[in-house]
Design brief:
36% helix; single chain
Length: 104
């Protein structure tokens, strides 16, 4: 079972991802965050195998949250999630330590 932490400011997006990432497909959603400022604590609490993180969020965006999270050598991989086909945003996520990305 792959343990996933979802990070997106839109509840509807998180609900959709929960519907896709089900146990029958080998996933377990172990937690959710509505902004990037919650990620580091949520990772400590839930110990996910991967973090699926929105790029653009209020308060703390995905780039900053990824940078903070990846500062720890024990941080799980981050998969960037975005609706924006924006090379600059995606490059920022990759420079911050994201392992890859998926367009919403």
């Amino acid at each position: 079972m792959i343990r996933v932490l979802l990070v997106d400011d839109q509840e509807l997006v998180r609900a959709g991802l929960r519907g896709i990432l089900r146990e029958v497909f080998g996933f377990e959603v172990v937690g959710e965050c509505a902004n990037g400022g919650e990620v580091v604590d949520a990772v400590r609490r839930t110990t996910p195998d991967v973090v699926v993180m929105d790029v653009r969020m209020p308060l703390v965006d995905g780039v900053s949250a990824t940078r903070r999270l990846r500062a720890s050598s024990e941080a799980p991989p981050v998969l960037a999630l975005t609706t924006f086909d924006d090379d600059e945003s995606l490059a920022g996520m990759l420079r911050a330590g994201a392992a890859g990305f998926v367009l919403k």
